[in-house]
Amino acid sequence: MKTKKIVFLSLTVLLLLAVGLTGCGGSNKSAESAKPSASASTPATESASSSAEESPSAEAGPTLAGDFEVQYCVGGYGDSWQKSMVKQFKEKYPDVNIIESAGPKINDQMKPRWIQGDPPDLVFIDCAGGLDVLQSIKDGQLMDLTDWLKTAQNVDGELISDLLIAPAEDFGGKNYTIPFVFGSWGTFYDQALFREKNWEVPTDFDSFLAVSEKIKASGMEPYVHTGVHTGYFTGGFLFPAIVSANGDDPAILKDMADLKEGVFKSEPVMKALQQIVTLRDKGFIDKASGALNHTDSQIQFVQHKDAFIPNGLWVENEMKQDTPAGFEFGMIPSITQAPGGKYIANPYTSPIAIASKAKNPEAAKAFIQFIYSKKAAIEWAELTGALFNVKVDLNGSKASALSISASKYYSSPDLVVLPAVTNNEDVKKEWENATLALTYGKVTPEEWADRVEKAAAKARAKNKQ
């Protein structure tokens, strides 16, 4: 579940087009990728006039053969889409023998092979235990896709880089990964329950506190989070709170990712931490949260033991077997802004990458060209309830009701969309542990900041080695 620059205000327009939208979470030694052949980057018989409505399997393409191994985790999005893409890709390239290394625990199972230098050709970096992207780049495990991505076209002859909602992340001027998921963290609630109880849907932190008082008075816990995987809380609550407190400027997230000295003690961070303290001291956070994993917290939520939960747009699909009839998922991008302030949309992206030691890199590139199409993006939305990282109009599709409900926010001019950043894993682990401790009252905001600044200093020193 896991998963996965500037304020993307322009994204609101793209998301209006794309959203009917939608678990779960140093120096580069990377080998230079082989320059793609003309047939790999631009399939010979494909035309820019090809209709996005046509099946990708109907298009011609480069001559490919041999084994092609793809690694993907079966998590909150399931595996129906991956299996469909593999089947269609096989129909298009019958001489390719596709090996699927997949399952709920595949990331852990494949780690020895990555360490031993025998990775799969292509990997979906998603779910718990997925590759540490920064470390993988440092260790030279991921292919440099920078030059290839500049000209790579999909099966419909469209430039992939032009189709991306969230661009490929910049790692020192290079691209090693491409986001394939464009989800969003947020605060979720049951629209039907709120109508029944006549509870107001909050639009800011003050109104969130006000309705939480009513919820608690009714005997229901206002807010549950996934303590075992604290990233849900930081993604859905803490990061938006930090950006709101920073005057809606998400540059502070890049400072955090870059481990800028003092950023974790800065005024915006301290203000955001104080909002957590407010929730805690008012008794609005379910005390059971700390021991709950994502599934347990989500079950409590759909069973109306808790009214709100920070989560991602995949939650409706992930919980479809456990959600009672009549439950209507609703989503608020953020609840931490001041009255009249802008909503903060915190995207959740999971990337795809090619191993630098891929045995069939041309097949891996062709697979990327195959799946980054509008037809594949629509199929993803319909099968997963989430948004694929491709600009596409989902009107008339079978995208989820939650995605449609969320779209009103993404079409709003009063929205700040945060950039994707990759954080140091050791520092992230420390701030998540410290955040959980803060929700329990075991540390103060000042002690939180001391702990995380100390971890950041250690990471900076390590990076210099």
If you had to describe this structure to a student in words, what would you say it looks like?
This protein has 465 residues and is an alpha/beta fold. The chain folds into 2 domains: 22-182 and 349-393, D-Maltodextrin-Binding Protein, domain 2 (3-Layer(aba) Sandwich); 186-341 and 422-464, D-Maltodextrin-Binding Protein, domain 2 (3-Layer(aba) Sandwich). Helices cover 41% and strands 12% of the residues. The protein is built from 19 helices and 11 strands. The strands form 2 sheets. Strands 5, 6, 7, 8, 9 and 11 form a 6-stranded mixed β-sheet that branches. β1, α3 (80-92) and β2 (96-103) form a beta-alpha-beta unit. The longest helix is centred in the last third of the chain and has 20 residues, at 445-464. The chain is globular. The model is unreliable at 1-59 (pLDDT under 50).
Round the mean pLDDT to the nearest integer and report it.
86
Rough outline: globular
Low-confidence stretches: 1-59
Provide the CATH architecture of the largest domain: 3-Layer(aba) Sandwich
What's the number of structural domains? 2
What is the name of the CATH topology of the largest domain? Answer: D-Maltodextrin-Binding Protein, domain 2
Sequence of secondary-structure elements: HHEHEHEHHHEEHHEHHHHEHEEEHHHEHH
How would you summarize this macromolecular structure in one to three sentences?
The protein contains 19 helices and 11 strands. It has 465 residues and is an alpha/beta fold.
